[in-house]
Amino acid sequence: MTATRARAYRQAVPRLWWLRRRSYLLFMLRELSCVFVAWAVLFLLLLLKAVGNGHVDYQRFLDWAAKPWVIAVNVLALAFLVFHSVTWFNLAPKAMVVRVPKQMLALAPKAIVRRLPEGRVPGWLIVAQNYVAWVFVAAIVAGLVMRSGS
Amino acid sequence: MADTITLLVTRYRPDTEAEPTVAEYEVPLRKDWAVLDGLNHVKDQLDGTLSYRWSCRMGICGSCGMTVNGEPRLSCATFLTEFAPGPVRVEPLANFPIVRDLVVDIDDFLRKLPTVKPWIVRHVDWVEDGEYLQTPDEQSAYQQYSMCINCMLCYSACPVYGVDPDFLGPAAIALAQRYNLDSRDHGAADRLDVLVHPEGVWGCTFVGECTRACPKGVDPAGAIQRYKLTAAMRSVRALLLPWGAR
Amino acid sequence: MTATHDVVLVGGGAAGLRAAIEIAEARPELSVAIVSKVYPMRSHTVSAEGGAAGVIAMGDTLDEHCLDTIAGGDWLSDQDAVEYFIGEAPKELVRLEHWGCPWSRQTDGHIAVRSFGGMKKMRTWFAADKTGFHLLHTLFQTSLKYPTITRYDEWFVTRLLIDDDQRVCGVVAFQLATGRIETIEAKAVVLATGGCGRVFPFTTNANISTGDGMALAYRALAPLKDMEFVQYHPTGLPFTGILITEAARAEGGWMLNKDGYRYLQDYDLGTPSPTPVLKSMELGPRDRLSQAFVHEVERGRTIDTPYGPVVHLDLRHLGAEVIDAKLPFVRELCLKYENIDPVTELIPVRPVVHYMMGGVSTDINGATPLRGLFAAGETACVSINGANRLGSNSLPECLVFGARAGRAAAEFAASTRPPDGSTNTQAEDERRRLERLRSRTDGRDRIADIRQQIQQAMEDGAGIYRDHETLAKSADTLGDLAERAATARIDDHSDTFNTELVAALELQNMLDLSQAIIASALQRTESRGAHQRTDFPARDDEQFLAHSLAWREPDSTCRIDYQPVTITRWPPGERLYGR
């Protein structure tokens, strides 16, 4: 049976609650990063449009992109995007439980098995895989850009 | 070590006060005294009108959650020496209406809990056939989530719940996952709608404070992220294979 | 306002919830109410650690479990009730399994069992060492699925209503949050409020274990049975009284005195061996182990601490792996509350009040002599536990007799007429009493002071060993305290979550029960199980193979008479351990 608790005091959430704790602040920053994701997409679309419109437009875009404030916004965007990616990578082991197949566990040396709680792949390994994949993809992209640039 | 410590305790007496105030009490500082022992000293010796909940004083009944120096804690398992020389701020759990002093109204959780069907769903069930088999591995799939003592520290730590009280919340979702992941349960489909509701798992923005606040290592944040993945995969499957995804 | 239900359950622990589910399943047409002073998942069942006994293993038999229980209870158990209980226990435990209880398993997926004190075979089901916690939450969560169960969370029951035909037909209760006082009418009432360990100063029991249900029945003139039998658990942490489960010894823990000597071998409990032997040494019954501690103190072989003498529980030889798998909560509690790690250090322990073998006298159906009143769990005394309960018999007792009392109450409710309102005056009197108490301004002694003195009197008079002199002295002290309690000081006059009012009402309950315990112990001039009289050290089957019944007299004194024990197949014999 529920009571009528009209007199209960409702604790207000202070407007700056997200400054009270580092984790809250980081969370707000991650939420904010969506603005910069949108900016990055917009920047890419503008670039594509300029390329499509020919040399003159492309040069004008490059001049615009070299303006100090655009560079500043892009540096900021890069920082936010890296931050966003890192938090996503770190979240991965929370979202999935990867188990080592029984047969493999049986074959693996005891010293390793003992380090796998309940046969689960430890979180840091999942995160590490993400970073390795990230570096790998970045290297391919960088390679492509460098080669076409030369 | 000084032999006393000051407790700054939130008082709220709805009969006479419009909003909470702070009272100051001097209590003995002893090595093995928890914050709860300090409050009991106040209640027994100094001021019989102080109200708070407590029972088992061994960290398992979940009654005595409070905000101690800004952090949601079990007051029976938080020791005064941690805060020496003091003072120690003892406040009610955040994000809940205060009924009186350190007592908060948690009926909202008790209304939400049954909506996730926190029980084994089976369409036929014969006790006469003996126990269902469940290997230790199958058990470990959900065990962590079965450790929730409903102490409400996670709700108090969750800023989403603070801003949006309709959010289903960490403990209720973790308990839904406790049954979803139990090999004896057939009820995952029945829990889907309430979990994928905008106020269900998608309300969570992964602040992760619930997991840090949990005194029993339940990791509700992990439970929620896992269910998001499950729900997302399900939606993708439903989109690609409109006939037969269920 | 008056609410009406078919059956009202007072208490929402294992027994109350089990009764509620039983009624909801068997009789969905009946309306059931659970009235509890705490949210049900806070009930003291949550603190049970070691396990729940039920015969399931190959090579174990119901008869062996019966004999262990009866011998463990020093032949004071009613054997028909024991047989019924032991036959039903495995079924109830399987039912809990079907409801989701995470019982620990063998590698093939079958239920695992462990050994326990006084048990000749391994038959204790467990969920690591948080069995009570898992059992309670399983029951609570399962209870949420039945629409016919109404919960009154944080409502405190203060009186049973009895009509002109001497039939219990409801309760008066108040809601903590609002102070609203209400009559909840019912055709049957089941008491399931747990024990009253809080009448002692040093106890494993939670703050809420103040014997409210026992006191309600006693004041309604239902008798309390075998109240002199108070179980001391041999291993509680000093200062807090937190329980270190018997499972710690079942997994192989040793009891050591200050010389590192396994002293139990000196008390007719067998000879030490490195691995645990059933019904021997550390796996003896709780009464005998706690008594051995007293003798060690007398011999000066215990360790002195600021919280009194202790001995050591040694788990170090078990290793971290076994401790983390089987006893994780023991490790957690020791680290948190004693700042020691049982993997590498000795745990200081001493006997601590743990369980009341006695309670509201019921028959095998959970029915009390008052029509319409039932009781189950620690609140009740059927009796299956006799003079000393074996560890891991109490959780299944809550399930077996919770279900049975629920069924009996439902049948009674279905066959009786509804309350006719003839108790309105009683309810009105009770409302006025509560309002007077809440607004009392001329009180004198602090509640906490009186409570502390009651507890001291109980420890002095009714400890592990008793005699006429100390018991009589405590009886006098309690008489004085009763007068002072009647004018205890109440500073809190609020109607919102007034915990001081609750404490005042609990104080009265504790006083009534303390007097019943002392009176019962005074009259039983023999030693049996947990009741050890130094002035009458022998068991006396001639006179005392009988249950004591404590009745409240109109002048608030306690009258004791006796009722025979039901003996079926196991005639009284000698209790043998370690042989």
Name given to the CATH homologous superfamily of the largest domain in chain A:
Fumarate reductase/succinate dehydrogenase, transmembrane subunit
Alpha-carbon distance between the two ends of chain A: 77 Å
Q: How does the overall form of chain C come out from the CA principal axes?
A: globular
**What helical percentage do the residues of chain A reach?**
over 70%
CATH architecture of the largest domain in chain A: Up-down Bundle
What is the number of strand segments of chain C? 22
Structural class of chain A: mainly alpha
- Give average pLDDT of chain A, whole number: 85
At CATH level 3, the topology of the largest domain in chain A is 3 helical TM bundles of succinate and fumarate reductases
* Alpha carbon gap, first and last residue of chain C: 63 Å
Please report the number of helical segments of chain C: 15
Summarize the structure.
Chain B is an alpha+beta fold and 246 residues long. Chain B has helices at residues 35-46, 107-112, 136-143, 153-157, 159-163, 170-180, 188-196, 209-213, 220-240, and strands spanning 4-11, 21-28, 65-68, 71-74, 88-91, 98-100, 103-104. In chain C, the strands form five sheets. In chain C, strands 1, 2, 6, 7, 8, 9 and 17 form a seven-stranded mixed β-sheet that branches. In chain C, strands 18-16-10-21-22 form a five-stranded mixed β-sheet.
Task: Tell me what you see in this structure.
The complex is a heterotrimer of chains A (150), B (246) and C (579). Chain A has 150 residues and is mainly α. Chain A has 6 helices and no strands. Chain A has 2 domains: 72 residues, Fumarate reductase/succinate dehydrogenase, transmembrane subunit (3 helical TM bundles of succinate and fumarate reductases, Up-down Bundle), CATH 1.20.1300; 55 residues. In chain A, helix 1 packs antiparallel against helix 2 and helix 1 crosses helix 3. Chain B is of the alpha+beta class and 246 residues long. Chain B folds into 2 domains: 101 residues, Beta-grasp domain (Ubiquitin-like (UB roll), Roll), CATH 3.10.20; 134 residues, Fumarate Reductase Iron-sulfur Protein, Chain B, domain 2. The relative contact order of chain B is 0.12. Chain C has 579 residues and is an alpha/beta fold. Chain C is built from 15 helices and 22 strands. In chain C, the strands form 5 sheets. In chain C, strands 1, 2, 6, 7, 8, 9 and 17 form a 7-stranded mixed beta sheet that branches. In chain C, strand 1, helix 1 and strand 2 form a beta-alpha-beta unit. The longest helix of chain C is centred in the C-terminal third of the chain and has 25 residues. Chain C is globular, with a radius of gyration of 23 Å. The mean pLDDT of chain C is 96. Chains in contact: A-B, A-C, B-C. The interface between B and C is large, with 62 and 61 residues.
